[in-house]
Amino acid sequence: MIAVIQRVTEASVTIEGQVKGQIGLGFMILLGITHADTQEDIDWLSKKIVGMRIFGDEEGKMNLDIKTVGGNILLISQFTLHASTKKGNRPSFIDAARPEVAVPLYEKMIEQLSQELGQPIQTGEFGADMKVALLNDGPVTILIDSKNRV
User: Fold this and answer.
1) Distance of alpha carbon 128 from alpha carbon 103, whole angstroms
2) What are phi and psi for residue 73, nearest 5 degrees?
3) pLDDT above 80: residue 122
């Protein structure tokens, strides 16, 4: 499971002209799910995300987590994070989980992040054509792969 975490001052996702989710201060997360991902990946990654200390303290040091600053999360499914670009110019998405595997894991991640954060999170819609807008703060962007936790 790959997560691209962007610290934002605001973010939103629009589907067919309607705002589906939006947040102020917090994380806009793109989540890529592969066929090998499990509940263990969700548990580890959700704790890592909510515990990540990348918000500035009173001295401007990245030392505060999202709960401490009262932030929220906008989670967007993003199968293209598992693109293979080794051959040719057209990416292969063979490592991305098929919807029958990815949707239940995405929904579990929504539940787990909401639980870890202590409030409901905002989301996009799995498989939809989404327009994502954000104001990246810093910019701070962090990539986490749950398979690289050792």
Assistant:
1) 12
2) -130, 135
3) yes
Confidence class for position 149, pLDDT limits 50, 70, 90: confident
Statement: residue 133 has pLDDT above 80: yes
Which strand (E) or helix (H) includes residue 73? strand 72-77
Which of 79, 112, 122, 123 is an active site residue? 79
Active site residue 27: no
**Amino acid at the residue 87:** K
Q: Among residues 6, 78, 112, 123, which one is catalytic? A: 78
Least confident among 11-15, 69-73, 79-83, 112-116 = 79-83
Q: From CA 146, how far away is CA 150, in angstroms rounded?
A: 9
Catalytic residue among 38, 80, 115, 119: 80
In tens, the pLDDT along 21-33 reads: 999 999 999 999 9
Is 80 designated active site?
A: yes
| Tokens 């807008």 found at | 133
Three-state secondary-structure class, residue 134: strand
Phi, psi of 30 (to 5 degrees): -95, 130
What's the pTM value of the predicted model, to 2 decimals? 0.95
9 is catalytic: no
